[in-house]
Amino acid sequence: MEGDMGASPTIPEQYANQQVGISGYRVLNLDLDGVCADYAGAMRDYLVRNGRMDPQTIPANTRYALTDNDGWPFASKSEYIAAHKAAEEEHLYATMQPIPGVAHALQRLADEHVYIRIVTHRLFVSGQHRIVVSDTAKWLDDNNIPYMSLCFAGLKDSIQATVHIDDSPANIAVLREVGQHVVVFDQPYNRELGGPRMADWSDASVDQLLDWFEQWPAEQ
Ligand SMILES: [Mg+2]
């Protein structure tokens, strides 16, 4: 029937009585930096390449904000922002390393009819949005990352989903505050947060995630 979501050939039969939305069909809001892509590693490579950081230096990674960690060559937040902008111009977002296993894992989720919606706050510095958007799309293509939609948004709680995956303690807290289901993508700076948590993009993690889509675990 026209207009009947249940009759749509794009929605598998087992979800025929559900709508694409918050709690029905499986929508995954997926963060990029620190979850799918190694932003800190790419910034470090940029700084080493430009002689601003010793190649032996591995900065700490116990705080979410880069500049809150020891080992980075920034005296102030504005110095960091300037370096970030320069790295963007050198196509940081087109060339950064994927987190191991991410493409295979997302392909599996797509095959299981999870609707992958990328939600990233990458437009937090103004002036170079064209580079950021096109390099992000290029990176997703080059790394064979499947997705149905690509959102550049900082207010993550304004875009609901069945399940979110994020690494930022602030984003996770805000999303949970409004009742959204968030899986913490494990990083040293988010270890104090409660679960559910995934350590990596292994097949076992994907299996677990698929179970959580079917049955969100009780309070941990
Ligand atoms: Mg992130």
TrEMBL record:
Pfam families: NT5C
Active site residues per record: 31, 33
Family note: Belongs to the 5'(3')-deoxyribonucleotidase family.
UniProt-listed GO biological process terms: deoxyribonucleotide catabolic process
MF terms in GO: 5'-nucleotidase activity
Name this protein carries in UniProt: 5' nucleotidase, deoxy (Pyrimidine), cytosolic type C protein (NT5C)
Protein species of origin: Bifidobacterium angulatum DSM 20098 = JCM 7096
